[in-house]
C-alpha cells in the first residue's frame, strides 16, 4: 500500500514538473535561413541529413497550431527539394527534452500534397533510438484546412504515447513520394534531468555504479562495457564527458560547486552529490 501511494505521488510530481516546463516554438522571432533556434532558454540545432533544412520566412504559409492561425516562419527544405527522400533532426546538447506535438506540411517536389508517402518520427538519446514510428496515412491534402498542415501528436501516435520519453534528438524522415516537409508549432517539454520519464526505468543499475557518493570530488564509475558517460548539472547542462572502459574508471568533479549532479550513459542515469 505504501509503495503504491509513493508511486502515485511520484507520478503526480512528474506530471506537475513536466507541465511547468512545456513550451511551444512558433519560429516567428527566429532569423530567416538560420540552422538553429532558441526556445525557453534552450538552443536547438537543425541538422540536415538528406536535403538542406533551415528556417524559412514566407508570408502566410506556416501554421500556428496553438491558436490555429496562419503564420510566416517555420523549418523546411525549400532550397533543395527532391526527387529524393528528405531527413533532418532537431537536436540539443544543452538539455534533454520530450516532444508533445508539432505540425507538418508534406508534399512531393512540386508542392502536390495529394500523393502517397510516409513520415518516420524517431527520438534518440545519445545516438541511441528510444522510439521510432512511421505514419503513412491521414495526412492533410488541402490547404483549405489548417493551411495544409497535419498534426503529429506524440501523446497519441497510432495509439501509443511517446511524449514521456526523454531524448536529445528528434529526427524526421520522409518516404514514398514525399520530398518536401515543413515543421511548425513545435511543442516540447524541457527536462532538467531531475525527474526521469517513465521510460527511463531506473536511476542506477548494476551496469553503472558510482562511488563514493556523496563525494568531495574523486569518483569511480564502474561500467560493464565500453561506453560514454556525461555529467549534467541539476538544470540539465552538460558539464563533462567521460569515456568509460569496461571495469573501474576514475574521474573528478572537484572543480564543480557543491550540489546535485547526474551521470548518464545511453541507457542509465544516477544521481551524485558533491559535498
UniProtKB/TrEMBL annotation:
Residues 1-20 form the signal peptide. Keywords: Signal. It comes from the Bacteria. The keyword Signal applies. InterPro entries: Secre_tail. Pfam families: Por_Secre_tail. Residues 210-273 form the Secretion system C-terminal sorting domain. The keyword Acyltransferase does not apply. This is Por secretion system C-terminal sorting domain-containing protein.
